[in-house]
Amino acid sequence: MNLLAVVPARGGSKGVPGKNLRHVGGASLLGRSVAVAARSRFPLTVAVSTDSEQLASEARRAGAEVIERPAALADDTASSEAALLHALEQRPETEVVVFLQCTSPFLTTEELDRTIAAVVEDGADVAFTAVRSHGFLWQRHDNGHVSGINHNAQERLRRQDRPVELLETGAAYVMRADGFRQAKHRFFGRTVAVEVDPRRAMEIDTPEDLELARALAPVLDGGPAVLDLPVPKLLALDFDGVFTDNTVQVDEHGTESVTCHRGDGHGLSMLRERLSIVVFSTERNPVVAARCEKLGLPYEQGLGDRKVDALQRYCTKRDINLDDVMFVGNDVNDLDSMRAVGFAVAVADAVPEVRDAAHAVTSRAGGDGALRELADALLSQLTRSGAT
Question: Which pTM does this prediction carry?
Fold first, then answer.
């Protein structure tokens, strides 16, 4: 049977800009979905439907095929069904279509395989992932009053006495392709729900959801993540709070000193042999010059809140597109630079606004191994890709 797994990933998310490229547990949301499908026991062809070249590059990097989605099917009003039907037009041989959503990062391959089996082996027309729901739902009316939807407010049944109610997780839908082509909707014919682990049933629609997913990842993924990063043409680093632990010691003469991590220095020394690196610092401080010169890194300091201007000048002079830059920051004065580049990284102890803006967040704090973690991840990618 010909099975096609489709991961719709448009580039214009409003709730969390660039959402499908944001990292949870070390990998992008898009990469996580592709990886879950790639590990299936069923022979899936995995394709990403996207209107974004950046997402297309990430899809190929993750090992998926790319289906170029027309702009008309990628705006805020376009439905997932429209993207799936377009994908099936490109793959007319498909007999079963598996629809995966990047916004559900904790779906497991075992759960996906049970959902596929419900159609391929057990004869359902449609199967979707769901969890049991025991909540009492209420509806608010125009006059402000509320009434019960799934219960009689005057008779509160015990959970075990209520009929089983299921809530879609939004993670996976499996459909017979011919039936879907006819119905043009994901629910038709004999439809079954496949119950999955409720701890993993979350959807990322807001920055708060993303932060929660990042906090849960080490627990649900079974350990600390290894960053899976794209290799940039230029790595641009903030200094205070990234090289340092963001504290300053001042002696009685007013002399300042900061704390850096020796492992960070070793990692950057190895990385600079294979990747261009530059450091931008808000303040002018002898320690910036001393540390960067020791590591052999170019730097600019005393930039105030306009690091982004220095970054743009630096890239223009070297004919580097900002989309090919990775910026690492920790505080609000880094936000302009992080939003200007193709990939932004926050250290673990960055302020919430910076974490929200970052595609990836290190597991280590600034001045405590964050840059070594980053360097190791990039060196690993460079080795895998065979880049010199």
Answer: 0.82
